[in-house]
Amino acid sequence: MDMRTNIAAQTYANARTAAAAQPGSGTLGAGLTDAAEAFSDVLAQTEQTARATMLGGADPHALVQALSESELAVETAVTLRDKVVEAYQEILRMPV
Predict the structure, then answer these.
(1) Where are the alpha helices (DSSP H) in 27-96?
(2) Would the keyword Transmembrane be found if you checked this record's keyword annotation (predicted)?
(3) Distance between CA 43 and CA 69 in Å, rounded?
């Protein structure tokens, strides 16, 4: 076998392995679903912490931390929404 053919076959095999789908990595839809579930979980945890604080069962510092986490999650969701809307508007402005 020619040395160049051997190197080409090896390079192809390495590239094919690198391009293969990784276990646990999904499509864009799966990623968005996971992000939405994480967002929902953060809001639910914040709600539980707020209830516990009102009933005297949680530390006020835990409430402040939970509120900060939920604020960050909401800001991230709003930023993502704004970027999607902006991209959609750019697509609409494209000449056909």
Answers:
(1) 28-54, 60-93
(2) no
(3) 9
